[in-house]
């Protein structure tokens, strides 16, 4: 029985082969794609959800520790600082100050200030996430990061998906100069998600957006 009082939405972009980032966390192929004059301009009127429309409805962002570390490496916190933030992690005790972020293969953190919304903290499990979202009266949760999205999907907690497909194959061998980081980090597990049955969606809208990318907006079809 699903007692959630909140909805959750995934707003993510993938390469044609389904990756949300290279293994080394590079997402420049997405955020700064090589210009291609053959791409048409975004279609209008839009039927999908723009990021601005999406984020304006969100009261909680939940992201995996990997995504959090990438956000910290950016010059600015990429989301409105007023949004409540949960970071899923079994290795962080609390949102780190910049000096005690665990060393990892992620880009080196810079001095991005951690946002100061009404609520922000670390959660160590999906059960803890559920408790906090219920206690805080969450309404629309933005689920960010591949492993995190996979966890929400296996619990049946994803209500909407806004997926952007970038016109690129990342393949297996296009990593950094050491040949490391080829392939990438999938939005959905390539081994298949542990869902008890097929999860079906209604296509709400689809649009060509910037740089030849296609954005599709789906709403889950509950039995
Ligand atoms: N293209 C896009 O739209 C898009 C969107 C978001 C992110 N990204 C990119 O995707 C990459 C990160 O994605 P990712 O799949 O590698 O990782 P992720 O979901 O961001 O983070 C994974 C980590 O989160 C924690 N975690 C996740 N589920 C958990 C659970 N159920 N219980 C406890 N802890 C849990 C674990 O941290 P611990 O190891 O600390 O336990 C795990 O190692 C980054 O490069 C980011 O920039 C791209």
TrEMBL record:
Enzyme Commission number(s) of this protein: 1.1.1.302
Catalytically driven reaction(s): 2,5-diamino-6-(1-D-ribitylamino)pyrimidin-4(3H)-one 5'-phosphate + NAD(+) = 2,5-diamino-6-(1-D-ribosylamino)pyrimidin-4(3H)-one 5'-phosphate + NADH + H(+); 2,5-diamino-6-(1-D-ribitylamino)pyrimidin-4(3H)-one 5'-phosphate + NADP(+) = 2,5-diamino-6-(1-D-ribosylamino)pyrimidin-4(3H)-one 5'-phosphate + NADPH + H(+)
Coiled coil regions in record: none
The entry's keywords: Riboflavin biosynthesis
Domain Bacterial bifunctional deaminase-reductase C-terminal: residue ranges: 10-210
Domain of life: Eukaryota
InterPro entries: DHFR-like_dom_sf, RibDG_C, Riboflavin_Biosynth_HTPR
Pfam families assigned: RibD_C
Function: Catalyzes an early step in riboflavin biosynthesis, the NADPH-dependent reduction of the ribose side chain of 2,5-diamino-6-ribosylamino-4(3H)-pyrimidinone 5'-phosphate, yielding 2,5-diamino-6-ribitylamino-4(3H)-pyrimidinone 5'-phosphate.
Family according to the record: Belongs to the HTP reductase family.
Full protein name: 2,5-diamino-6-ribosylamino-4(3H)-pyrimidinone 5'-phosphate reductase
Organism encoding this protein: Aspergillus cavernicola
């Amino acid at each position: 029985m699903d007692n959630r009082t909140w909805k959750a939405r995934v707003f993510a972009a993938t390469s044609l082969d389904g990756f949300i980032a290279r293994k080394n966390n590079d997402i420049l192929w997405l955020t700064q794609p090589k210009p291609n004059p053959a791409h048409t301009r975004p279609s209008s009127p839009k039927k999908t959800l723009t990021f601005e429309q999406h984020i304006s409805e969100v009261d909680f962002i939940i992201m995996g520790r990997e995504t959090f570390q990438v956000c910290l490496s950016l010059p600015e916190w990429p989301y409105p600082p007023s949004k409540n933030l949960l970071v899923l992690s079994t290795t962080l005790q609390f949102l780190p100050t910049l000096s005690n972020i665990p060393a990892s293969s992620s880009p080196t953190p810079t001095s991005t200030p951690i946002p100061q919304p009404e609520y922000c903290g670390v959660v160590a499990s999906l059960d803890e996430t559920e408790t906090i979202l219920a206690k805080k009266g969450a309404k629309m949760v933005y689920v960010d990061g591949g492993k995190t999205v996979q966890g929400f999907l296996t619990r049946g907690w994803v209500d909407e998906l806004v997926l952007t497909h970038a016109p690129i194959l990342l393949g297996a061998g296009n990593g950094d100069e050491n040949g490391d980081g080829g392939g990438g980090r999938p939005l959905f597990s390539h081994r298949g998600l542990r869902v008890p049955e097929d999860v079906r969606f209604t296509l709400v809208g689809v649009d060509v957006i910037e740089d030849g990318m296609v954005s599709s907006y789906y709403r889950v079809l509950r039995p």
